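Handover notes (outgoing to incoming on-call)

Open items:
1. Ig-like domain-containing protein: sequence verified, structure written out, both below. Nothing else pending on this one.
2. Nothing else urgent.
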Amino acid sequence: MEFRCLLFVLISSSVVLITQSDTTTKDPDWSDIVVTMVGREVTLPCVDWPLTGSVSINWKMKSPSVDHWKLVLSANERQQFSGAASKASMRLVDSNFQETGDFSLLFIPKMEDKGRYSCLIIQEQKKLREKIILLAVLTVSIFPSATLPQHSTLRLMAEVSPASAVSEVTWLSPGGKPLRLARRSGGGVAKLPQIRLTDQGVYICQVYPRGNSSSPMFPFTVDLRVDGMNVASFTNISHSAQISMASLTQTPLTLACPPMQGDYVLLYWKPPDSRNINTTPLVYGYDRWRDRTEQSKTHAQLSLDGPLSTPKEGFFSFLLSPGLNDGGLYMCEVFLNDNVFSQWTLLSILQVKARHSPSALVLTCQYTERSQVKRVVWSHQNQSRTLKWSSSGPGHLSTEVPLSPTQDTAGNYTCTMLLRNGQAVKAVYTVKLPPKGGENQTVQLGMAGWMWFRCFLGPHLQRVHRSQEESRPEGRAGRRGWTYQPKSLEKHTDSILGWASALWSLSYYSSPLLLCYLYRKGYICSSKLVPVSQYVGSVMVCLLGVAFLRGWGRWRNSEYQQFISILEETRKNHTPSNKKKLACYDFDFSHWPADFSWEEVSNPKLLSKAGVSLLKPEPKLRGAADSVLNSLRTLPCHIVSFLIAHSFGRRILYPGSVYLLQRAMRPMLQQGQARLIEECEGQRNKLVACDGNEIDTMFVDRRREEGLHGQTLVICCEGNAGFYEVGCMNTPLEGGYSVLGWNHPGFAGSTGVPFPQNEANAMDVVIQFAVHKLGFQLSDIMVYAWSIGGFTASWAVMSYPEIQALVLDASFDDLLPLALKVMPDSWRPLVTHTVRQYMNLNSAEQLCKYQGPVLLIRRTKDEIITTTGPEDIMSNRGNNLLLKLLQFRYPKVMTDDGVRAIRAWLAASNHVEEAAVYSSYEVDDDWCVSVLQSYKTERDVFFPWSVGEDMTPEGRRQLALFLARKYMRNFDSTHCTPLPYSEFAAPWGL
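Ig-like domain-containing protein C-alpha cells:
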C-alpha cells in the first residue's frame, strides 16, 4: 500500500491533474482529466495493483473530430510491444508494469493529440479494467511580449481545447491576487493596462477541471519584465468632435466619453479661462481590469456614473455636479489595447448670487469659461421693464433691485448665457413681495424657525440616490446617484464636529490609561478639576455654536431642506410611497424609521428577558452548601470576567464595533452601499430585534430575473470586522441569488453590542423579516457565513431546521482554543471562565443540532483561526468543526480508523497531496453513494446514522474520506481574501 501511495505521488508531481468521479461529471466518457501544453512532456496516469499471469496493456486514442478509437501503444508482461508506439516520444512510464502496477503513458504531445485516451488492462485474455482519460491542451499567448515598456497594455490569453475539459481558467498576479478576465469558451483574456515597475514578476495561469474543484489543476507561469527606461507612446489617437455645453452650478450634467468599449479611462481638466495650455491635471482615472480608481480631491463631486455608463464592462461617461470654478475643458481619453479615443468637452458654468447693499439688492450673474460665451443678459418677467446692469470684471454682470420691492420690481429675474453654438442656459432669482400683515410674517418666521430647528437636529446626509421612476437626463439608464454637496458653512462646521467626535472616542477608549496618568501626576483633585471643567464647558459652548451654524448651513441648502421634509413626512406616515422617496437618500441610519419589528409577528411573553434561547454550558453538579461556598470563592473571578468581557474583551473579539475603525472605513462603506443600491437595486431596511436593538439590513431581490438561483434567498453573516457593504454579500450576488445582508449589533447602522445573546436576537429578527415581510419560505433560504459569522449561522439552522442549507467559510468550532492561543498560560482559568460565561461561541455544538446539508470551506493559508500558525494546516479549527460534525452524524463510520484517514486527508496542503491520499485508500465514490442512499431509503432517520456498523475497517475508511470530501472544500488562500463565486456552491446532499 505504501509503495502504491508513493508511486501515485511521483506520478502526480510530474503532471498537474485532477481525478473526477462519475458522480461529479455529466459526461460518462472519462474519469480523469489531464491538461498540458504543446511540447511539454505529459503523463497519462493509469495505476493498478501488481498483477500476475498473462498481462497486457493497450493504449488507444480518440480525437474529438472522429468517432473511432486508434491504437497508439500495446505491450505485454514480457515487455514486448505488440503494437508500435504512434509517436517517437511515446512510451510506458515503467516497463516493469506487471510488478509495479504502473501502466501510465508518457509522451510529448502536439495540438492534434488532444482527445480521449483509453488505458485497457487485460489479464489472462480478459478485460480487467479500462480507464478513460481526457487530454486537453492549453495555449497561452502574450501580447505584445513578456518585456514591456511602462504604461503599455499587457494581454494574457489562455485557451484550453477541448473546452469541455475545464470549468474555469484564471490568472494570478505575482502577489497571488486573481486578475479579472474576459471569459471565453475554454479560457479567457486578462489585461494589465498602464504597466508599471511594480507590476513585474511571475504571473500564473490556473486551469480548473470541469466540475467544481478547490485547487488549480494546471499552473503555467509567465515571467513579466518591465523596461523602466522606456515609456509606451500611444500614436494611434482618434479625436471626436469637441462638445460645447453650459450648465448651472450644482446641476448634475454628463461629461461624455468616446462611445466604445475600453480598458481604462483618463479624464483631464484645463481650468476655466486659463491661459496656460499645459495646465491639464488628471482629475479621474479608472482601470476596469484592476477595478482601480484615481480621483483628484479638487473634483470630489465627479463620479463615473454618466448615462449608459457601465465602467466594469468598459463603457464610460461621467456625472458632475459642478461648482462655479468647475468649468473649463474636459478631455476624456478611453484606452483600448494600443489605441486611444479622445472626446473633448468645453464647459461653461453659470450662477446667480444675491447680496444686500445699503440701498438695494444686488444680483450678480457669474460665469466661467468665457471663451465660448457669446453674450450674457439680465431680464425681468415684466418684459416691458428695461433693466440696467453693470460689470465689475470679466465673468460678472450685476443688476440692482430696490430694497422694498413693489409689484413692478418683484418677480423672476433671469440671467441668460448664450454660447456661440446657440445653446442657452438660464439662472432665475425670485424677488418676493413683503408680507402684507404682521400675522403672516410671524407665521412665515415660525415656519422658517421650525425648519432650521429640524435642520439643526437632522442627520448627516451623505449621498442622493436617483429614484427608479425619475427621468434620466439624456437617456441615462440605471440607478445612479451623486455625493451630497454641502454648502461651505455646513461643510466646515461638519468637519469640526467630526474631529471633535473622533477625539472624544479616542479619549473614551484611552480613558483608563489617561485616568491612571492623571492620578499619578496628582491632577485628580478639586483645585485642578475646577479650571479643567471651565475649559471643558467653554469647549462645549463653542461646539454648540458650531452645531447651530451647521444647522444654518443646512437650512440654506434646498437639497437638504427637501430631504428633511421627506424624512419628517415618513416619520409621521410610513407608507410605501414615502419609504420609496426616503430610500433615495443615504444618511445617518439612527434617524431611519423602523421597517419591521420582531414584535409584529412574535409574542414577547414567550421569551426570556434576554431574548431567544441559546445553548448554555452544562453546569457542574454540586451540593447546595458547596455551591454557595464556591460562588463566594469565585466571586472575584466573576467580577474580573465581567469587566474584561464588557471592556476590551468584546472589542477585541468584534473590532468592527469600535467607532474609530468604523470612521476610518466610512468612505469604503458608503461606496459599497451606493453600489448595492444603485447598481444592484438593493433595499435598505431597519429591523427592531426582540431586545430593542436596531439592525441595519440590505436586501437584493433577484426573483424577477431570469436565472436558476433567484428564488433562493442567501442570508449572509459577516465576520468580526465585516460589514454587508463590503463583505461576503458579493459572492452570492455574482451567482444570481437573492441576498439579504445584515450588520452585527454595534456595526455601522446597527445599534447595541455584539454579545452572543444580541447576535442571536439579531439573526432571529432577520429570519422573521425574510419570511414574513419578504415572502420567502424557510425551505428557500440558504445561510452563508464567513469567519465568526458561523456562530449566528449555526444558531439560525439550529433554531430553524427547515432552512435549505448552510455554507460556512473560514469558520471555527469553538472560540475558546483561539482565545487561549493569544493569552498567557497563566490566564487560562480566567480566559476559560470569561469565554464560557460571556462569549460562548459554540458553533460546532449548534451545528450538530441541524439535519440539513452543510458545506465547510477551509482556507489552506488561514492565519486567523489556526492555533499555531498558517503553515500548520492541522491547527486550523475548521478541521475540528468537520470532525465534530461527522462524528455526530456518522458515529459508526468515525471510528479510530476513519478519523485517522480523515486527518491524513486534512493534513494535505495542496490538491496533489489530497488526490494522493484519496487514491491510496482506493475510495470508490459510486459505492459510497449507493451505501448511503440505500441506508437513507430503508430507514429515512434523523442524524446520527448507524451506517457503517457492519462494515470492514477498509470500508469505513473509504466512506469517511468520501464524506469528508463532500462536507469540506479547500480554498488556497488566506483568511480575509474574498471568496470568488467559483468556490461557492450549494452543499452536497443525497
